[in-house]
Amino acid sequence: MTPYVRILLFANIGVFFLQNTLGWVTGALIFIPQLILVRPWTIITYMFLHAGMMHLLFNMLGLYFFGPRLEERLGSRNFLILYLLSGITGALLSLVLGPSAAVLGASGAIFGVMLGFAWFWPDAPIHIYGIIPVPARLLVIITTVLSLWAGLGGRGGNVAHFAHLGGYAGAFLYLKYLDRKRLEFRKRATAGPPVRELPLTKRPEVDLSRVHEVNRDEVNRILDKISAHGMSALTPQERLFLSNFAQPDDRPPPVS
Q: Does residue 107 have an active-site annotation?
């Protein structure tokens, strides 16, 4: 169990307990689209409310199954931003396209987490009802089509289908932003004066705890490549990139 997954689980369960012990909690925290200007906090608080035990159970199971691996991949801060942003965009899409009914539940945020999982592990099997294996990417496509059909066709019942779609939209935009940020950071990391290539016969020492998370996956990939095939297998660009993270004794001096 990762840190923010644990915190979010306890927060949702705690608020559900308050809903059932203090009658005013739901009314104070629920998102009502027409009242967004006078109750702006509800665009966040609504995602910690639930309509019943089964509603809470299914959302928390989704968080428990998809959240830890995604938090480990993104880092806790980025995971929390993705979770909250997905919930917020879920509320906003319900405001723009959905009915005027009040909205509650973590589904938008959980759908965002599910999209993040499918983003990095598209072929990972997800067992529907614990029996039917479906690739994560296909599950996202199926749920998107069903939410569009139910939402636009007026067959949503008491389900906030546009909140689900908004959760997907928020997660997609944030993941695209992280990809762009990671690319720009790598360009800056390799910019500057020319650097002599690392020796082909020596694996450098790299302190991964000091490598920014946007570069950590690439550094690990290059180190794994060295372990499997040796330094001679690296391209000049890979040697140049890795030299930015080598320990001082291993870092070659700049060429004048």
A: yes
Domain ranges of the chain: 3-182, 193-256
pLDDT of the residue at 251: 47
Contacts for 21-28: CB closer than 8 Å, 24+ residues apart: 25/49, 26/104
- Using a 10 angstrom Cβ sphere, with 0-12 exposed, 13-18 middle and 19 or more buried, the burial of residue 144 is middle
Tokens of 105: 């539940």
Query: Does residue 164 or residue 202 have the better pLDDT?
Result: 164
Task: Tell which CATH architecture fits domain 3-182.
Answer: Up-down Bundle (1.20)
Q: Classify each residue of 164-203 as buried b or exposed e, where b means 16 or more C-beta atoms within 10 Å of its C-beta.
A: bbbbbbbbbebbeebeeebeeebeebeeeeebebbeeeee
The one catalytic residue in 50, 55, 161, 164 is 164
Pairing of strands 132-135, 125-128: antiparallel
Q: What is the predicted pLDDT for the residue at 128?
A: 81
Q: Which of 86, 94, 107, 147 is catalytic?
A: 107
Let me know: does 206 contact 247? Beta carbons within 8 Å.
yes
pTM of the full structure: 0.72
Q: Catalytic residue at 164? A: yes
And the tokens for 24?
Answer: 């005013």
